[in-house]
Amino acid sequence: MRSVVRTLGTLSALSALSASSALSQTDPRLIDAVRNAQEGRSDSARMKVRRLLAATSPSDSLYPQIIYTQAMVASEANEMRRQLQRVAVEYSSSSWADDALLRLVQLDYASGNLEGSARNLERIRLDYPGSPLLPQASYWAARTYFDQKNPELACRWLADGLAVSRGNIELQNQLGYLDQRCNSVRTAIAGRPPADSQPTPETAAADTVRAPAPHPKAAPAPPAAAATPAPAPVNAGPPAPSRPPAQAPADTDRPITPPAASQPPPTAARFRIQVSAVRSAATAEAAARRMRAQGHDVVTLEEGGLYKVRVGRYATRLEAVADLPNIKAQLGGSPFVVAEP
Questions:
Q1: Which of 99, 157, 165, 272 is the most buried (most CB within 10 A)?
Q2: Residues 6 or more apart whose Cβ sits within 8 Å of residue 92
Q3: Per-residue b/e over 51-64, b at no fewer than 16 CB within 10 Å?
Q4: Which DSSP letter does residue 195 get?
Q5: Helix crossing, 97-110 with 114-127: angle to 10°?
């Protein structure tokens, strides 16, 4: 119990530095539960979240948000970790997955599990490249990799975080403070010779090989014998006149058309907004028709026994998140951003 309290206390202190959710709870019942927990009424908060979870279908887009909130009001670290992992694994396409991964990074760092922290950081970087949480993730990545004695990777994360956190002065100050340790690292990197200037074993061996010089006593090569024409056959007639090679008849009536230039395929959408997930194909198609009639770009797909309806085509997660309020206002429900495979 003492270690659990220490872990939670450390996580609370570290979280106050820079980690804030990319999203806040949108359901009034969840907002009320979080407020209860902040006011010290954690038991009441947990009861409200459990009741809401029991009354909500797992296919509802609100479900991962409820699980995430359940993690935030948990009474001990193991329960918090279990609920966050559910969001990150079972609902990896929801808009709460990257937030859950960042909280797992904080838990791992607070408990001294630097390998687990680094693993979840790389998941954020690879699986959610457009996440608005990348500036906060860069702070925890720097601390994790500095502690792992990997300053080059820590400084790379810091450079990326400083580039995308210009609107957050407090976070910029925190990243800038850590970035002071990167001056010597960058100097060392700049002093290294370029990789392509280093001779490889193959090129070094090739440089030492030279063509053998001719032996001083070697006899010169004999001159090539001149070709003599073959004698003409006896009683041979006059030579046949030469004929030009046959050529294909010119088709002057047919115009020459150059081959059509290959057109690149249209850019596939990387992110969409999921509006609903139902068990009936007919229900999903009816919803899709209604959304198309409103002018939306709609796709439906079957996944895990559910028929999911998604709208929009976005190149980055940031674009999709920016359009999320408009989609919610037009279509209602609890839509969330998903990454296309």
A1: 99
A2: 127
A3: ebeeebeeeebbbb
A4: G
A5: 160
In the predicted structure, residue 241 carries a pLDDT above the cut 60: no
Query: Residue 101 and residue 107: Cα distance in Å, rounded?
Result: 10
CA angle 267/135/116 to nearest 5° reads 95
- Burial-class residue 216 by CB neighbours within 10 Å (0-12, 13-18, 19+): exposed
Q: What single DSSP character describes residue 142?
A: H
Q: What Cα–Cα distance (Å) separates residue 5 from each residue in 1, 33, 227?
A: 6, 22, 101
Distances (CA, A) of 229 to 8, 223, 225, 232, 308: 102, 19, 13, 9, 86
H or E segment and range at residue 267? none
Percent of the chain whose predicted confidence (pLDDT) is above 70: 70
In the CATH hierarchy, which fold is given to the domain comprising 271-339?
Alpha-Beta Plaits (3.30.70)
Q: What three-state secondary structure class fits 99?
A: helix
Q: Residue ranges of the domains in the chain? A: 271-339
* CA neighbor of 320 nearest in space, from 27, 31, 98, 68: 98
* Most confident of the following: 3-17, 136-150, 221-235: 136-150
309 - beta bridge partners?
276, 300
| Euclidean distance between CA atoms 309 and 272, whole angstroms | 10
Q: Does the structure show a pLDDT above 70 at 126?
A: yes
Confidence of residue 118 (pLDDT cuts 50, 70, 90): very high
* CA triple 134-149-141, angle to 5 deg: 10
- Please report the pLDDT score of residue 234 as a whole number: 44
Residue 202 reports pLDDT greater than 70: no
Q: Name the residue among 272, 256, 276, 266 with its Cα closest to residue 314.
A: 272
For residue 281, count other CB atoms closer than 10 A to its CB. Answer: 11
Q: Rounded mean pLDDT of 165-187?
A: 88
The residue ranking higher by pLDDT, 17 or 210, is: 210
The pTM (predicted TM-score) of the whole model is: 0.55
